Amino acid sequence: VTAEKGGFAHFMLKEIHEQPKAYRDTMLGRIDESGRRIILPDLHLTEDKIRSINNVHVVACGTAYHAGLVGGAVIERLVRIPVMYDVASEYRYRSPLITPETLVIVVSQSGETADTLAALREAQANGAHVLAITNVVGSSIARDADDVINTLAGPEIAVASTKAYTSQLIAFYLFSLYLAQVRGTQTADEIAHIIAAMHALPEQVESMLANVDAIKAYAEHIAKHKDLFFIGRGLDYAVAMEGSLKLKEISYIHSEAYAAGELKHGTLALIEEGIPVIALATQESVLEKTVSNIKEVKARGADVLALTYEEHVAGLLKSVDQAFAIPKTLSILAPALSVVPLQLLAYYASLARGNDVDKPRNLAKSVTVE
Ligand code: G6P
After folding, report:
1. Which residues line ligand 1 (CB under 6 A)?
2. ipTM for the complex shown
3. How far is CA 94 from CA 55, 129, 149, 163, in A?
4. pLDDT score of 3 more than 90
């Protein structure tokens, strides 16, 4: 059994460590040799069709939905098309406004999630083109979608999704750049610049995985708590949601992810002496704003850990109790790095609590019934 796990104690840890390979495999063959263009030769979506899209819906469940929150925001930023997000179980019942100019992107590791499959059918019935981002070739969602971008994460066994999520981010980066290339919303140099930063991601993840002692110690501290909060703005908020979900799924510690600026509208009332708050602070355009929110929770006694770039650690340490650095990257790519310590945090917290890491209570890897 340990052989199956490649020497790791759990599938989840093995899969966390497989992320650099999953990033490379998902990029392979989809970037041309000059490193300046995206090539997605299997897409049926024509360039004319791409130019006619006037809105995008991103629909998924669970962790795949969280990847969609990042991916949709990246599309908006690079391509300037309005994007709407929905969990599949809501989308299918609220008669969403779908037209033939809507591109619907469904995201699913397994390709078998019942709600996501139903959402895909609803979208197609209303004339939308459906692109699926899935990890299982030949799955129901892959078969029924009009287009598929396969993530090449390899089989994911642990119920808590890790490498599938980050591979979904890579697929979204590639697709967003492709749309930007076709619609001319980014220059060739801007696209090349982002591609270069993407190529650096696998090694950057490797460097984080070689250095887990601090996060492990922090997880052991967190394991004694009942509640905690994740806060962030923009893409940091999207990653906060994934960090919170991961922790809930396998450690059973209650946590909430909050948009940092929204705390003062209610959740701040829950902040009391010693409560752990994990503040993601990688989005530099809103860093100052995030720091003000950190000060709000600090003033109420929170025990704050910040996740940021090395260059901001010293500054942030004036307002937080601890700070962990992640390698430097572009703001849109930060989720592909900042989520890794949060995956490790959930893993080690679950371990410290003696839980069944790979098979958490009440959850299934793939939910094929409604
Ligand atoms: C289940 C799994 C989650 C997963 C979600 C969506 O709830 O436990 O890890 O994110 O389904 O699964 P999918 O296969 O569609 O990505």
Report:
1. 61-64, 108-110, 113, 116, 159, 161, 363-367
2. 0.96
3. 17, 19, 27, 31
4. no
